[in-house]
Amino acid sequence: MKKSNSLAVVGAQWGDEGKGKVIDYLASVADVVARFQGGNNAGHTVVYGANIFKLHHVPSGILNAGTLCLLGNGMVVDPLVLVEELAELQKRGIDTSNLRISGKAHLNMAYHKDLDEANEKLLGEKKIGTTGRGIGPAYADKIMRRGIRAIDMTAYERFRERLAGILPLQNRFLKEIYDHAGYDLDELAELYRPALEKLGPMVADSSQLLVENLNGGKKVLFEGAQGALLDIDHGTYPYVTSSSTVAAAAATGNGIGPQHISQALGVIKAYTTRVGEGPFPTEDHTEAGDQLRERGNEYGTTTGRPRRCGWFDGVIARYAAMVNGLTGLAVTKLDVLSGMDEVNMAVSYRCGEEVINNFPLSIEELKECEPVYRSFPGWDEDISRARRLEDLPAAARNFLDAIEESVGIKIELVSVGPDRSQTIICKGSNLESWIASGQQKKS
């Protein structure tokens, strides 16, 4: 394997896979953690002892003192929400002075949220199921070349000038299509002034910072949000997010070359969940699905919405491995399955009279697919204290072996609880070497 000091950590399902915990664990040996897409529609919950942190913009690495945290150019940043998020972290004793914002990142403005909510209401039963945070409209403005970028936060007059050129069109949309009152330029600009004063000094050339750190041998983690099945190109379109969530986006979303990313760790839950609308072949509507939701506390970090729950889906996991170029898997929430009489895994789909092993291209076809399950005996043991694979009951190890077999990628990390300490690093894995080299460098 080519030796690398960087690692991309991405979701390999529909998001909510537990990336925050995995990245927080790995960030202890990283010098830099960089997010590359999404905005405050994402939510990472990190548990450390009695402390629970719910992060939205800020990379999970912020909880490790001295780690440089970057918000990449591929993100859309809500200045008002970010200021509140930083204030809450500081209130709890977390140093946020190492956060930097790419000057090329776009801003998610108040009118974007209004447009998002109004559009979902207009769609009615055909709604996408967005978080209502304005992410889609913010990315749309970026593509339409009428966005405001983070660099504009460094000078209030330039920010106001940009806003003055954009707001008339936004107000026209709001008033004529969505029956909204619109915004006054002076009032809106003044609303953002305090946030600009706080965030402006954090704006930087994050691409240059990353390249300098990478070339200097520093260990860099690229933090993905959402998951592969929510990718704007490769997900279950149109029931997707508005950015590219796959590992390759770590390069474009941070302004660096692809040669800097040679390892990609895909995070998957030992079962499957999704939030919002769209097809979900392994969704379980019985008591088992309810048990997974309650045992796994499957409620959105950002919205609080209950997540739809079902069994592990090997078809989407194989697909995610392909579009991400995964080099390893991190299986989370294995402990949630403890106490289940049996656990299931979809190994293929039955679509009409045909059984298929690959993820279908058509969303209409996916809606008609039914999972073909392979069932496994459950286990009753409490596995939250396991720190080696050998500590797990045979039934749990058999299930992990089946995941490896189905996906065709080696498992490198297993999470058996929400705390940092409740983590198994598989011996002989690339991840073990990555962590060991970081520990050696920091000692």
Commentary on this structure:
This protein is α/β, with parallel strands linked by helices and 443 residues long. It has two domains: 6-97 and 205-442, Adenylosuccinate Synthetase, subunit A, domain 3 (Adenylosuccinate Synthetase, Chain A, domain 3); 106-203, Adenylosuccinate Synthetase, subunit A, domain 2. 33% of the residues lie in helices and 19% in strands. It has helices at residues 19-27, 79-91, 110-123, 135-143, 156-176, 185-199, 206-215, 249-252, 287-295, 314-324, 363-368, 394-407, 430-442, and strands spanning 6-11, 32-35, 44-48, 51-55, 68-71, 76-77, 99-102, 106-107, 203-204, 220-223, 264-269, 272-274, 308-310, 312-313, 328-332, 342-351, 354-356, 370-377, 411-415, 423-425. The strands form five sheets. The protein has a ten-stranded mixed sheet, with helices on both faces. Strands 14, 16, 17 and 18 form a four-stranded mixed sheet that branches. Strands 3-4 form a two-stranded antiparallel sheet. Helix 2 (79-91) crosses helix 6 and helix 5 crosses helix 6 (185-199). It starts with 5 loop residues before the first strand and ends with a helix.
Keywords:
single chain; 443 residues; alpha/beta; Adenylosuccinate Synthetase, Chain A, domain 3; Adenylosuccinate Synthetase, subunit A, domain 2; 2 domains; ten-stranded mixed β-sheet; four-stranded mixed β-sheet; 20 strands; globular
Distance between the termini: 25 Å
Backbone structural class: alpha/beta
Residues in β-strands, percent: 15-25%
The CATH architecture term of the largest domain is Alpha-Beta Complex
Would you give the CATH topology of the largest domain?
Answer: Adenylosuccinate Synthetase, Chain A, domain 3
Question: Mean pLDDT, nearest integer?
Answer: 93
**Gyration radius, in Å:** 22 Å
The CATH homologous superfamily of the largest domain is named Adenylosuccinate Synthetase, subunit A, domain 3
For the record, the count of structural domains works out to 2
Identify the CATH class of the largest domain: Alpha Beta
Helical segment tally? 13
Topology, number of strands: 20
Unreliable spans: none
- Order of strands, main sheet, comes to 9-7-5-2-10-1-11-15-19-20
Provide the helix percentage.
Answer: 25-40%
Molecular shape: globular
Main sheet? 10 strands, mixed
